[in-house]
Structure to design on (340 residues):
């Protein structure tokens, strides 16, 4: 489990320290406040425990700065500047990296703690905004043989979707989650060759013919079925609401809350009011849910600041709720004028 993140001069952040919850961690904030950057950074740290890649090398793969230059991930200021990253997990294991805006290649990044960090594997998965299963056939071989501008998270998610089912009977925790998803997508996911299909009462429907929201839930079904998401694993999901009908939000949140109860640590980035409210309304007292609001702090020269709370009503600088409140007020105002 990831416990703490400390950043200095990394991308949009000049100085940020976050204590991370053991359950669901929800990041909100306006565009450009670094939500996706935080998810990618933490995912890279988790993934190297499986791949044994150098941490700096993995960062280049998931962020893809121009010419794979680490210096371009340093916060843009005049003159020389240095970025530092430190991530802490259970057992007080720490992974750290330092590099300046003059660092040209990942081999020149100073790193510390990777050997001990990588000895204890963290099963992790990053679900990007763009759905990939409908494009999966042939994608891995193309990615390996050609220089294509796809962040490494896209290849990684396809690799995890293709993993075979765990041997032995499905445990009760996974069985419950799979049943919830099967109800939401009206079927199960099967694989033929490199293609994915939804097996339903209508027959086997290829993923390309399904709505993208259903495909994303189908991906979640695969990750639970093949054992990628089990106790002790970490899920990163960027904008889970994308192309998903709001009528399915409740089912999705029930599944994420159940994963959290089963020992999966979850990090979400969202712009959606209904997602936030479904989490707030469906979570139970014993659930571990934390909200992180990223915003520009005028008192600190527009630097990105983060406030954390476990209480939805106490979120500071909730731009999502403020926007929906404004819509509601304008609708009421229009109605009153119409009645006048």
């Amino acid at each position: 489990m990831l416990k703490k993140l400390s950043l200095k001069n990394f991308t949009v952040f000049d100085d940020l320290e976050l204590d991370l919850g053991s359950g669901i961690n929800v990041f909100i904030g306006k565009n450009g406040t670094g939500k996706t950057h935080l998810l990618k950074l933490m995912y890279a740290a988790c993934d190297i425990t499986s791949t044994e890649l150098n941490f700096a090398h993995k960062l280049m793969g998931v962020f893809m700065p121009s010419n794979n230059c680490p210096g371009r991930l340093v916060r843009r200021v005049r003159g020389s500047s240095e970025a530092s990253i430190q991530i802490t997990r259970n057992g007080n294991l720490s992974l750290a990296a330092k590099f300046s805006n003059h660092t040209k290649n990942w081999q020149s990044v100073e790193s510390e703690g990777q050997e001990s960090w990588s000895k204890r594997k963290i099963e992790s998965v990053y679900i990007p905004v763009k759905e990939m299963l409908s494009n999966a056939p042939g994608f891995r071989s193309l990615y390996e043989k050609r220089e294509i501008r796809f962040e490494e998270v896209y290849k990684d998610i396809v690799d995890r979707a293709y993993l075979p089912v765990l041997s032995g009977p499905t445990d009760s925790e996974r069985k419950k989650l799979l049943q919830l998803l099967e109800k939401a997508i009206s079927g199960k996911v099967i694989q033929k060759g490199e293609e994915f299909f939804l097996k339903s009462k209508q027959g086997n429907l290829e993923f390309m013919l399904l709505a993208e929201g259903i495909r994303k839930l189908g991906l979640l079904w695969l990750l639970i079925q093949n054992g990628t998401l089990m106790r002790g694993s970490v899920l990163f999901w960027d904008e889970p609401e994308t192309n998903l009908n709001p009528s399915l939000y409740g089912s999705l949140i029930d599944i994420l809350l159940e994963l959290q109860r089963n020992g999966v640590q979850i990090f979400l980035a969202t712009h959606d009011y209904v997602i936030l409210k479904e989490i707030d309304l469906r979570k139970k007292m014993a659930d571990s849910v934390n909200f992180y609001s990223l915003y520009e702090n005028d008192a600190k020269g527009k630097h990105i600041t983060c406030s954390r709370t476990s209480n939805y009503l106490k979120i500071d600088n909730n731009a999502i709720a403020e926007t929906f409140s404004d819509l509601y007020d304008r609708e009421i105002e229009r109605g009153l004028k119409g009645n006048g």
